[in-house]
């Protein structure tokens, strides 16, 4: 059960949440060696900018900054103004120069069982080669490169190579369709695409390069495609455009002098779904982003670079992979695990086997995976030695107390802290989380804004709600890793994030939240038309557009329905066109075709779990679809208040037609 998924129309908090008032204090041993203590909160409140300047000073700057924050162009901030640095130098070279070249940066494990250990010295050489290759292709600082790669070291190397020469990367998750890839390539006017011949998926090679070829047909901006050989399947190479990574990058010099860039130089674009049909390219820049990535990674995960083995099991195609696989951990000279495959390949104990083998000490995953482990059974974690673990993290969606407690007991052995971390693509780095050596943690609560960060839970008109009450989560002070806007649409960020509480100047996150009686924060899920499926953001409108782009569909309405494993599942209601029998007179055949169609349009992550064919959709008098009522149907609940429906017979017709169909 996920607490209060349906916040937009009604706020409800489950019994389970209210009852789980038990807290878990850190052990003394953890507390005394922790990177952060309680005093950080006061330090940050007393002098916010001084506090952030101190965090920024942990990085190596080629030119020191003269102003911490320039907020005169709000809501576009400039942090560490006047400073110059090289992000890749900070993540790689400086550790080698400090004598840590032989420390493993990445313990990489491939899905078929192959592995590579990459030290910081090796990483420096590889990143330099890739940087030289991109320069030879004619790229200059400010150009854009799109990266669609599986979870292989070349993904990290490519990102850092771009950063090293001031080129902006846009990583596209491997599961996105050619159409979605093409939209991102065009939006950023990318000159180079980096991909691989294929990717392992549940034990077998699946194509990747051929998807890229399809995406790039007549793409106007792309001059070259770099292809990493991963699975060894034959691919078509376009003469003059396509180059093999092992030949072209492999043949470059490993010497490259990193030049410095302005603190506000663009670092990357990452697309995320909002409340419209078109994904937004979220822009992040260099100095502020890296400062908060490194700081949060240091204090929330309590990382000790000399002893810890850290594993964030995200994909680099999402913000979690950017900030907590690439930039934060590497800036902090972390040794980490990078795993290519799915958690159940070749068997369901795979993650635990890796933790045991590599003595992983910090493990960061999403609640959907915890719930999947619960389903697979307690016997799996029990079969492995997980005593190397000393800290667990959770991200991506509200963690229900039941999953928290299972995680605590079965993976953490009942002895180690869990940090529930709330943040977004737009925030760039963690904003709300308990500090593991400080907080007595509460199952299900992200608890408290980090030192240096300020958030509030407010009501409709922007007034802070009392303890024990729910409302909207807002961020009321600028922060270093905040997005610098939407790529190609400079005015849109104001409207999307800041207009809702314009008078107060608050950033509206799109999430509902609640203060408990102690003032701790509980996240309640999205309050807009964004669904959260397995910790991935998908807009209802994006899926609806994909459905209506199929000739058989007249109208579609999509809702996120509570799902035991994935948090929410996509449920679509479609009205077929009068002549849809031209496609088939069998609804099952049409439904199967529609599922495939959405997969092809957006990607398998957007494929609805259920598609229900209905004769009508419930609408308000102004024509707005009442998703709340459809969610009632999708979650098998009694239909709620229909007072605002234009035509109350609509819901009866829908429920009756579904009953007679099943
Ligand atoms: C949305 C952001 C942050 C990296 C992964 C997702 C939800 C994220 C939590 C959490 C409750 C969470 C929110 C947020 N979310 N973390 N710990 N507790 N909800 O990044 O794709 O930008 O999605 O994910 O709804 O707005 P994203």
Automatic annotation (TrEMBL):
Residues 99-487 form the AMP-dependent synthetase/ligase domain. One of its GO terms (cellular component) is cytosol. It is an enzyme of class 6 (ligase). One of its GO terms (biological process) is acetyl-CoA biosynthetic process from acetate. Signal peptide: none annotated. Coiled coil: none annotated. The lineage of its organism: Bacteria, Bacillati, Actinomycetota, Actinomycetes, Micrococcales. Belongs to the ATP-dependent AMP-binding enzyme family. Keywords: Acetylation, ATP-binding, Ligase, Nucleotide-binding. Its EC number is 6.2.1.1. Residues 38-91 form the Acetyl-coenzyme A synthetase N-terminal domain. Residues 542-624 form the AMP-binding enzyme C-terminal domain. InterPro entries: Ac_CoA_lig, ACAS_N, AMP-bd_C, AMP-bd_C_sf, AMP-binding_CS, AMP-dep_synth/lig_dom, ANL_N_sf. It holds the Pfam family ACAS_N. This is Acetate--CoA ligase. One of its GO terms (molecular function) is acetate-CoA ligase activity. It comes from the Bacteria.
